[in-house]
Specification:
The protein is α+β, with helices and mostly antiparallel strands and 366 residues long. It is built from ten helices and 15 strands. 43% of the residues are buried.
Length: 366
């Protein structure tokens, strides 16, 4: 049986809803807009229905009903990469955000994460054991989707892409069967899934962890008009640093919103961010060329965790201990300090640059 209706027919809607442990939303119902909204708000997602799965059984049930109705299924945790899902006509959007189980095997140096686990939660769980997971651009990105898409993070120069650290995947295939994929089971599907292109709804992943006892991380900001100069200096510098240094240069624009700290609100900057797997003294020596580059004056000091988060596009919340120094418009001095010590839970990976571990990449390209 197939249907092209914009909403599920009543009897099928009732059957699916009754079979779920989680929730189902269709157009016009309370909660519909929140259920279909992705993190990437520029993408207007309009599926036939949204299922918020409470467990793996809900994933199996959704796929079974979709097959009977001739509908597609599009899994999504946070929706940071919502554009990749494509059009959602004749599609049930399957939200996996509630699949948030986490378990760490410190002896095996692995972490098992549900498909809804975000990078922050995975990093914190791993750090409890002195270990780190390769995570990505922001703390609220889903760690499973990030890894399936390749996964370039702060630790990638020394430890490779997150996709290469996937030990096993658990999921539901197009026939509604619960499967485990690894090097010995469904090897071809396992290979394809690590590029995000296997016909499997991934419900959990087992990821490799890495020892990490200390990390110095921070950022420096300059007025945006200095971006060409700052980028040129960074390009020269990044070719000289060891693989334990992850860094990027970029333009940052902060919206004029009350949640943004006043010194940053509505302003744009040239930014260099670094994460250094070494002690503070070694880190200070490594970044000295950046601080000295065409600067009349700069400041370098450790920052509390809230100060680090304050220069993140997503983490713009209050904090009594926030210390951010941004110089007036037009001032050509460094705008903020760089360098903060902490375990892996204290930082959230963004983009690593240079040569990836075991992968040839032009140094300095992010």
């Amino acid at each position: 049986m197939s249907t092209n209706a914009s909403v599920l027919p009543g009897e099928h809607l009732r059957a699916l809803r009754a079979a779920l442990h989680g929730e189902l939303f269709v157009p016009g119902e309370p909660g519909w807009d929140d259920a279909r909204r992705s993190w990437q708000v520029l993408v207007d997602q309009r599926p036939v229905a949204v299922v918020v799965a409470a467990d793996v059984d809900d994933v199996v049930t959704t796929i079974a009903h979709a097959r009977r109705l001739g509908l597609r299924v599009a899994p999504q945790a946070t929706g940071h990469n919502a554009r990749a899902v494509g059009g959602l006509d004749d599609t049930i959007l399957l939200r996996t955000s509630r699949l948030t189980d986490i378990s760490v095997d410190a002896d095996a140096r692995t972490i098992r994460v549900g498909a809804g686990v975000q990078a922050r939660a995975a990093a914190v769980a791993a750090a409890e054991h002195g270990l780190a997971v390769i995570a990505g651009f922001a703390p609220t990105v889903g760690i499973v989707g990030f890894s399936l898409g390749g996964g370039l993070g702060w630790l990638s120069r020394s430890h490779g892409l997150a996709a290469n650290g996937i030990v096993a995947l658990e999921g539901v295939d197009a026939q509604g069967r619960v499967v485990r994929l690894d090097g010995d089971n469904g090897a071809d599907l396992f290979w394809a899934a690590r590029g995000g292109s296997a016909p499997v709804v991934v419900t959990a992943a087992e990821l490799r962890l890495h020892p990490l006892t200390q990390l110095v991380a921070g950022g420096m900001l300059w007025p945006l008009e200095r971006l060409p100069e700052v980028a040129a200096a960074w390009r020269e510098w990044v070719g000289t640093v060891p693989d334990g240094v992850g860094s990027l240069v970029r333009a940052m624009r902060f919206p004029p919103l009350p949640m943004v700290p006043e010194p940053l609100r509505g302003r744009a900057f040239a930014a260099i961010e670094v994460a250094i797997q070494d002690d503070p003294d070694a880190a200070a020596a490594l970044i000295a060329p950046l601080r000295a580059c065409a600067l009349r004056r700069s400041r370098h000091r450790r920052r509390p965790a809230t100060a680090r988060r304050a220069v993140r596009g997503e983490e713009l919340r209050g904090g009594a201990d926030r210390r951010i120094r941004v110089l007036p418009r037009g001032d050509d001095r460094a705008a903020a300090g760089c360098g903060r010590r902490g375990r892996s839970r204290r930082t959230h990976p963004r983009v690593a640059t240079g040569r990836l571990s075991g992968i040839g990449v032009q140094r300095g390209v992010c």
